[in-house]
Specification:
This protein is of the alpha+beta class. Helices cover 43% and strands 33% of the residues.
């Protein structure tokens, strides 16, 4: 399997129901062609860098998925046909991708970020931190007196 990222811009004037139908359609294309959607993140409506078909705004969506080259061809074919999609681009992120290893890596990353949050959390009142042993406090005080 390979890991891909497809970034596409949808017509912003679509009602929410039509946008959700398009989201479901695109994700089902990936899953029906032997792929797996890893992330699907709508970025919201933003101003376009240049007008596309008289539109100056667009709904930006970023999707990461795993699959084969045939999946990308089929997905891009459907995006090209669909008039609701203004622009799209697909990028190969990883040539050899294992979804199981990715799940393990994300779980380890989440656990690491959780412990970092615990360490950076403020300590309750009354608990003071000890001065590390490798800091020379006496030398620092003498230098500051010389500066004056």
């Amino acid at each position: 399997m390979r890991k891909y990222e497809t970034f596409f811009i949808v017509d912003p004037e679509l009602p929410d129901e039509a946008t959700s139908v398009l989201d479901t359609k695109i994700q089902s294309i990936v899953s029906s062609n032997g792929g797996e959607v890893l992330t699907y993140v709508p970025w919201g409506k933003r101003k376009l860098a240049y007008a596309i078909g008289r539109r100056t705004r667009g709904l930006y969506v970023l999707m990461e998925y795993a699959g084969g080259p045939q999946l990308v061809a089929e997905l891009e074919r459907n995006l090209r046909i669909d008039e609701r999609v203004l622009k799209f681009i697909t990028v190969l992120l990883d040539e050899r991708f294992d979804p199981e290893k990715e799940k393990e890596r994300k779980a380890a990353q989440a656990a690491a970020s959780y412990t970092e949050e615990e360490e950076s959390a403020p300590k309750p009142l009354g608990e003071e931190e000890e001065m590390p042993e490798d800091i020379d406090v006496e030398g620092f005080e003498e230098e500051s007196k010389e500066d004056e």
